[in-house]
Amino acid sequence: xxxxxxxxxxxxxxxxxDFEAExxxxxxxxxxxxxxxxxxxxxxxxxxxxxRISEASDNRLHxxxxxxxxxxxxxxxxxxxxxxxxxxxxxxxxxxxxVLDV
Length: 102
Prior knowledge:
By secondary structure, the chain is α+β, with helices and mostly antiparallel strands. Helix content is 19%, strand content 38%. The strands form three sheets. Strands 1-3-2 form a three-stranded antiparallel beta sheet, covered by helices on one side. It has a two-stranded antiparallel ribbon with strand order 4-7. The longest helix has 19 residues, at 26-44.
């Protein structure tokens, strides 16, 4: 088993990770996914600036995130919350409003 903070090598970004999340609905899924990312940022000291979703449904998400290795910056976000959380389907995509605990 590999450590959470063990990076993949040979990638364009200095930090590349696969993240999976599950939830009972879209809102729970989004909050769980964002909190998984925040946990990895806080544990490994990385900052992610882009992602590619490889699997998405109403209750499961798998994505690869790209960012910067430890030591670049620090996140001051504590958690994604359910307060005023909205997930909307538009004609072409989904939009969300998320309140973050800082």
